[in-house]
Amino acid sequence: MDMKTRIAQLLADTLHKTWPEAEGLPEAADIRGQLAVPPDPTLGDYAFPCFRFAKVLRMAPPKIAEAVAAAFDAPETARVEAVNGYLNFFLNRVNFDKGTLENVLVSGEKYGSSDMGAGKTICLDYSSINIAKRFHIGHLSTTMLGHSLKRIYEHLGYKTVGINHLGDWGTQFGKMICAYKLWGSEEQVEKGGVNELTRLYVKFHAEAEEHPELEDEGRAWFKKIEDGDPEALRIFNWFKELTLRDTARVYDLLGVKFDSYAGESFYNDKMGRVIDELKAKNLLTISDGASIVDLEKYNMPPCLILKKDIAALGRDHNPGASNVFVNCGIPMGLLCLTLDMFKGFFPVYMACRTVDIREIYFAAVIAAPVLGHAIAPLNGFHGGKCISTAFGVMIALIPITPIGFVLAFLYIFFSVIVKINPVRYRSILTFALFGVISVIWLSEVGKFPIAVGCGAVSATALLRHTKFFSFIPEGSREKLPEASSAENQL
Q: For residues 341 and 338, what is the distance between their CA atoms, to the nearest angstrom?
């Protein structure tokens, strides 16, 4: 029992003992709420106002205070003084210290513990070191404060979860990998640890001053980490392992432990469900191509959820024109559609005027833009659905064959007249029929290379809309969850 509670109980007992016939006297719990620590230590350790008893006891507050002070007798107090209607309690320091020490000796490690937190969980985020950097003095305060709070809450019966939320995400890690590839070696990094990683990072920025193209290489390596490239992830995780190995020595010296080391990278593949939920609740707003939650009505700045990443914003995780229309508006959508179509149109248009369209290799010219858009090797093999590019190819072929009108008719027919949903099934049926019709028709009219090219375009589009598209590495495909599986991402 704490001393404040003990004084409240003794005061309640004294009141009832002094005026046994009185009704409406407060109990200990009520009195405890009225006990206060005086601003001046000369007025005692606790003070209690007696004014509230005047009506019940039909006495003046100073008389009540004097009567209680005279009757109050307990080893916990050295004396009790009545001052202008107040009771000032002075603790018996000797008895207080003796009682405290006896409790410590009896309770041992359980002294001060309680079950107030039973059934409750407290999560504490502390330390939060940065990968590939030294544990420094700036991390020390949060590390020790967090660890101390964790131990206090555990002593009070709470279940605690100590989280070291690592700073392990961002373009800087792509730069680290780039620097390692250019100037480092496994032997040097294993030997030098975090110091060697720091040296490489500093060298990267020094070299980037003279060779700005290195910044692009760094961003490309980070994109590989985002896309699940096996080599990039291997090096990235190795850097994390080296850093944690280095900081473990410091944590062991401090006696600090954690239940979780889940850093920023842990949530890379778990954002889909949150984004879908924000969309379902109409909380996402597009601002300059970025997705934000507008908090203006709370007098707070907007919360940035996603940068201008159309692949992440789209429910099908496709960087194509349709998602640009939805997430960036009509002007940007039209621009993306035009560029996608031009990507297919221009090479085929130029080839029609510079090569012999009767040669079989012309089929490769027709298929190449669509295949390149679908595979997208320079984008971590995360290509688009290639519909716009396919239409661009067909437009370029109009002077040679009107086969493109067949593709346009089929797409409009299954979109407007006989509506087929979802869009993926509509595209599969459209390109399947187009492939059959184009191969048969163009072969019959003696345009075999074009027939093969159109067949290849159809096959690429079909595969890109199915789960059998084998061009995407398995490690990368895992980063492209279907919208229907978003509920399982967290």
A: 5
Whole-number Å distance between alpha carbons of 321 and 368: 19
CB of 80 closer than 8 Å to CB of 87: yes
The pLDDT tens digits of the residues spanning 301-330 come to 998 887 765 555 455 555 566 667 666 667
Burial of 342 (0-12, 13-18, 19+ CB in 10 A): middle
131 phi, psi to nearest 5 deg: -70, 145
Q: How does DSSP classify residue 417?
A: I
Query: Does the bond joining 422 to the residue before it have cis omega, within 30 degrees of 0?
Result: yes
Residue with tokens 């409009």: 412
- Which residues touch 165 (CB under 8 Å, ≥6 apart)? 125, 128, 262, 263, 264
Torsion angle of the four alpha carbons 476, 477, 479, 480, in this order, in degrees rounded to the nearest 10: 140
Q: Which residue reads 């961002």 in tokens?
A: 170
Three-class secondary structure of residue 490 per DSSP? coil
Rounded Cα–Cα distance for residues 79 and 37 (Å)? 16
pLDDT digits (tens, 9 = 90+) for 359-401: 998 999 998 888 887 776 665 566 677 888 899 999 999 999 9
pTM as predicted: 0.51
Rounded distance between C-alpha atoms, residue 337 and residue 350, angstroms: 20
| The CA-based dihedral angle spanning residues 336, 340, 342, 343, taken in that order and rounded to the nearest 10 degrees | 140
The b-or-e profile of 151-161 (16+ CB within 10 A means b, else e) is eebebbebebe
Q: Which residue has the tokens 């009767």?
A: 358
The 10 Å CB-count burial string (b at 16+, else e) for 378-406 is ebbbbbbbbbbbbbbbbbbbeeebebbeb
C-alpha span between 207 and 382 (Å, rounded): 30
Residue 333 CA, chain-centre distance (Å), reads 28
Q: Which helix (H) or strand (E) holds 116?
A: none
Which residue is listed with tokens 């203006």?
296
Tokens of 254: 């401090």
User: Are 160 and 197 in contact, with CB atoms under 8 Å apart?
Assistant: no
